[in-house]
């Protein structure tokens, strides 16, 4: 059986930034025994030990965009993300580079990685509530992820 990981990313103390963590928990509940769950609020490099050894990784995260309205969902692969996407500081670098580094280090990297993002309005303000667009969208987004990624485990 394929080892799968649902990886929720974000910070629940920064309003919308926590939506990846909350949605990942819901995806895991819907997927049941179909996947493990890991939640992280770390720099990209720190994800290597979390994803090593899994055949499939489903990343669930928030993102900010001037072009994509808050509450809108996107799905990507590391290869389909625009060059430089995910590079905001020396603490982060793109997922495709993380996978390449893991392979170079001899770690068993996943053969399939999907990245599910929800566009958010506010990921910088301290607060425990989502903005209205994210609050309306996150549950349906999580259900869509579970159906798309774990069709044999969800109804």
Describe this protein's structure.
The protein has 155 residues and is an alpha/beta fold. The protein has a single domain, classed as HybD-like (Rossmann fold, 3-Layer(aba) Sandwich), CATH 3.40.50.1450. The chain is built from four helices and five strands. It has a five-stranded mixed beta sheet. Helix 1 links the parallel strand 1 and strand 2. Helix 1 packs parallel to helix 4. The protein is globular and about 45 Å long.
State the gist of this model.
The protein is α/β, with parallel strands linked by helices and 155 residues long. 29% of the residues lie in helices and 20% in strands.
Give the topology, please.
Layout: E1 4-9, H1 19-31, E2 36-40, H2 48-51, E3 56-63, E4 73-76, H3 95-104, E5 112-119, H4 132-149
Parallel strand pairs: 1-2, 1-3, 3-5
Antiparallel strand pairs: 4-5
Helix pairs in contact: 1-4
Strand order of the biggest β-sheet? 2-1-3-5-4
Tell me the overall shape: globular
Distance between the termini: 20 Å
CATH superfamily: HybD-like
Rg, Å, rounded:
15 Å
CATH topology: Rossmann fold
Q: Helical stretch count? A: 4
| Beta-strand content | 15-25%
Question: What string, H for helix and E for strand, traces the elements in order?
Answer: EHEHEEHEH
Which class best fits the helix and strand makeup?
alpha/beta
- Rounded mean pLDDT is 90
Domain module count: 1
